[in-house]
Every structure is written in C-alpha cells, then in structure tokens.
Amino acid sequence: TDLTELFSYDPQLAATLLDEAGWTGRNEDGFREKDGVELGFTIYPTPYLTGSVPEAELISQHLGRLGIRVRTQKLDIPTWTERVTNDPEQGVGEVTRSFVDVGTVAGVITDEGEDWFQTGSSDAELVRLRDEVAGAATREERAPLVEELSRHVLEQAYFIPLEQNVQRIYVQSPELTGITFNAVAIPSYHAATKEKP
C-alpha cells in the first residue's frame, strides 16, 4: 500500500505547527525552546545496519533547519542494547525486523507482545486493528486491515519508516549445494556441502 501522502515534505507547515505548539523561542545556538527547554533529542543509530549513521545525520540536518537539535551518538552493540533497547525512558529507537508474514506484526505492537510503541493497550483503535489482523483468516481479509493499521500507526506517529531493510549480500562458491532459505531469504548453511572439483 502506498501511503506516501502521509510523508509530504513541507518545512513551512512544520515550522508553523512548531510555532503553534509554543516552540517560538530560540536559544543562542538557534534551536527552538519553550519555557527554557530546548527542543531536541538524541538518536542512537543501530549498530546492526551500516546505513543507520548517515540516516541519523540526514535527519539531524533536516530537523536542524527547523530549529530542532538532533544529536547522533554511535554506540557499540552492548552499549546500544543497554541505552536503547533496555531503557523504557528512551523515546526514540530504531526498529528493524524481518517478518515471515505481516500477521506477525499484530503480536509486537501492544503490551500483548513486545509493545513497540509503548502504548500498552491505551489506544483502542490500535488494539482493535491488532486483534482483527491477527484473526483474519485469509490474505484477502487481512490486506485492508493491514492497510488500515499501517495508516493508523503512521497518522499517530508511532513509527516513521526510514528504509526497507533488504541489505543482505551473500557470496558463495558455485560448488556449494544443500543451502536452504527461510521465509525472509536468510540462508542456512547447516546442511550445505561443497562438491570436490
């Protein structure tokens, strides 16, 4: 489903909305502030994807033009896990996951699963859509529900997609046989053998 209309680039509208929300002051560095509090946050790019750091830097540049300070801090895997994954107070985190089936998503978006958006069961519409997606018996029944769920998640700004995670490159010998692939195209070499030339 194409939901690009929800992502129109309109810096003037963004600036107007920030002004209307009361972020009209500017500090000495030029960033917006309200009641002495600077508008900004820190992004911790995931160490699992090479494109995360340049994406974070691009986000910082675009939001900086609007007066929002975005700090980027690169971390190693153990520190990233502690600072981002294990910290319930961390409001901005990168989520990357490959799913075998879109119906699996219903199990991670509320407190009946991983609670990706930290909403628990407080969003009745999200809970309804979760249950309907999980209970759909056919792809035809599920497709419009997934579209409705996607639209709701984006309109509530629970999640902002930045990339499609398809960065898998494998190089192997043509003599290798017995390779199997799971539903998200990750190879398994467990039963693979190499033919002798």
UniProtKB/TrEMBL annotation:
Residues 8-86 form the Solute-binding protein family domain. GO terms for molecular function: peptide transmembrane transporter activity. GO terms for biological process: peptide transport. This is ABC transporter substrate-binding protein.
